[in-house]
Amino acid sequence: MKTNLEDIFGPIEYVTSHKAKCIRVSIKANGLKVSIPLHATPKDAQKFILENIKPIQAKQSRLKENEKNNPTLLNETSKLKTLTFDVNITRAERNNIFFSLKDGLLKVEAPVMVDFEDSNTQKQIWNGINYFLRKEAKRLLPGRLQQLAEKYGFTYSGVKIQPSKSRWGSCSGDKNINLSYFLMLLPAHLIDYVLLHELCHTIEMNHSAKFWHEMDLVTDGQSKALRAELKKYNMPGI
Hints:
4-stranded mixed sheet, about 240 residues, Zincin-like
């Protein structure tokens, strides 16, 4: 009985590469991408996959599990959106990971043979994305914080943009506000919720009933619902 490889692995893309010296299989959670040297054919690639079907299946299973447990694992199928730009990850004939932001799209080009499951690869991708998250956060968040402060009558001493992965924001006793640049991964209304949360801490440092009363005043009584919605979002684990 003939084995249908796509029934097992999902869509399979065959790419002839002049740089490939042998058949290489890039494994994704929902499919495969196979790089074929000039002297080989897709039929040769299919034979190679069949001969290595068990280890390929095992690695794909691990990748699926990793994506399930770590939604911040990025690859070609990821659909990452930030407040000001979308992220598109592709493979290209290059030796390093390249980033380019233009017209609201951050293009990430990785080498054809890259292993997206590799932790170093993930770190490199996130480092590049973080550079633009920080840049955009510094461009937009201080101004938005000032707008909300003026609208609702708050005062604060200063604002800093930081790489915090433990808190979206914080406010010190002397009214200095710290904001994580990962806020840019949230939709606009939840960013405003966090900014208002820290502004309310300028007059009430704890989470007392008075604090939540202030939050309800500036969110049209939606502070509880917005707080619950924010909990559905996680910061990157990389």
